[in-house]
Amino acid sequence: MNRLELSDNLPPCSRCQGRLMMSAVAPQEDQHGQPIHLELCPSCDTGNVERPAAGLLLQFFADGAGHDPTRVQEAAHLLMEWTKECMAIHGWYLADTPPD
Ligand SMILES: [Zn+2]
Fold this sequence. Notes:
Layout: E1 22-29, E2 35-40, H1 42-45, H2 52-62, H3 72-89
Antiparallel strand pairs: 1-2
Helix pairs in contact: 2-3
């Protein structure tokens, strides 16, 4: 992603219209040429067996770990897994090695 913005005014969840904890726009578009929005929603993603990475990231924040600098590597890992999970829903998969 090209940039990161912090905001108190996130768009509503596309699934429940509730309040998102985190939102991002992927650097790729979907098959219809529309932006892919990555959403972390406490209502939709807590305990959602189809989105285990989102649930783990929500639990991480619920535990207060987002303010613990000793857990920054765990945060990075959980964010990457959440991003991959969200992108896979739209048919995008991360390649471990870039193409030649
Ligand atoms: Zn939701």
